[in-house]
Automatic annotation (TrEMBL):
<protein>
    <recommendedName>
        <fullName>Swt1-like HEPN domain-containing protein</fullName>
    </recommendedName>
</protein>
Length: 355
């Protein structure tokens, strides 16, 4: 399963969980900040739960989706309802105990003291209140006695820390590089060359804008994605109810960017090799004028288009052999297509030995 691969094998996502585990095992409550939706959230939580259980089977991880807490002022009463028996709740009195969070922290009877609690579904507009409430709970706990430990999972809210909560920001661990590494791991057994695998992963990552789950869905389509990037992306996104405005333009721009990275370095290597082999012959037809009306008088400065022009206009002199001239023509065409913001087909890339 791809989510298990992500949370158990990819270095930086695993390191993220390592640090969370260490903090929780040290009885520190943590707040986890995600700029966007959490990739494979259920698998992440299950992985954390298993890690904690392996270290201490006396405590259990309880997961609460708190999206139903519509008013941030209800946090204390919500937690009181979740963790206190009726007779415990009857003991609570605001003028005596201050508020629900202080009461929970000072209570020795509540089952919260033997639990790690993962809070999901926190609305961005309520994030600050949740952080303040859990911070107050931790501040009023007796550090010498057993108490509850919280994991707050927050999406789309600014990352802020407090003295009582250890903050972990997902993007401090995971970058675009990790998205690429996941895709490369997924296609490692594919029967094609290294360049084609790299190009496939670049295309998948670019189309998904490095959104981990979307990139994985696209990479799983293997070479079909390269053969028909627009059609395959439209199908995959429709099947997974992913909506993107102007998807065709997004896909073409993403593929173009991947092709620039793939084609231009190899095109430059081809240009340099042709000039190295035939510099003395090419020099005979210099100087020439560039499209900008600049003078080119050294073979080393010739661009692909200028090389093609000289070889074509002087075909009788056979500056290159036939196969090299044909490849020069294809390379010039590829360069012109990309220079005009268009993309090469899968067959064209194969034809010029790019993949």
């Amino acid at each position: 399963m791809i989510g298990e691969l992500w949370w158990n094998r990819l270095v930086n996502s695993v390191r993220f969980l390592d640090d969370i585990q260490i903090a929780v095992m040290n009885e520190k409550s943590v707040v986890l900040f995600f700029d966007d939706e959490i990739p494979w959230q259920d698998i992440m939580i299950e992985t954390i739960e298993q890690r904690l259980a392996d270290q201490n089977d006396d405590r259990k991880l309880r997961v609460l989706n708190v999206s139903s807490v519509s008013d941030s002022n209800e946090i204390g009463s919500y937690l009181l309802e979740e963790f206190c028996r009726k007779e415990e709740k009857n003991v609570y009195w605001p003028t005596t105990h201050g508020n629900e969070m202080r009461f929970l922290a000072q209570s020795r009877d509540t089952n919260l003291n033997k639990q790690d609690v993962c809070l999901t579904g926190i609305r961005p507009e309520h994030a600050a209140k949740w952080i303040a409430s859990i911070s107050e709970y931790m501040e009023n706990c007796d550090p010498t006695k057993e108490h509850g430990v919280f994991l707050l999972m927050i999406e789309g809210a600014p990352a802020v820390g407090t003295k009582q909560l250890t903050a972990f920001r997902y993007t401090d661990y995971v970058t675009d590089y990790d998205c690429m590494m996941l895709c490369l791991t997924m296609v490692s057994d594919l029967s094609c060359g290294r360049a084609e695998k790299m190009y496939l992963c670049e295309v998948a990552s670019n189309i998904a804008h490095n959104h981990i789950e979307r990139a994985a869905l696209l990479a799983a389509e293997n070479l079909d994605l390269l053969r028909d990037p627009v059609g395959v992306t439209e199908r995959v996104y429709q099947e997974n109810d992913i909506k993107v405005t102007n998807l065709q333009n997004v896909v073409r721009a993403a593929v173009w960017e991947a092709q620039i990275k793939l084609v231009f370095p190899k095109l430059e290597n081809f240009r340099v090799e042709i000039i190295r082999k035939y510099a003395s012959k090419l020099q005979q037809y210099l100087p020439i004028r560039s499209s900008n009306n600049d003078t080119v008088d050294q073979a080393a400065d010739l661009e692909i288009g200028q090389l093609f022009y000289i070889c074509k206009e002087n075909s009788g002199s056979r500056i290159t052999d036939y196969a090299e001239f044909e490849m020069l023509k294809k390379m010039r065409n590829a360069r012109n297509i990309l220079a005009h913001w268009d993309i090469l087909s899968y067959e064209q890339l194969k034809d010029i030995d790019m993949i």
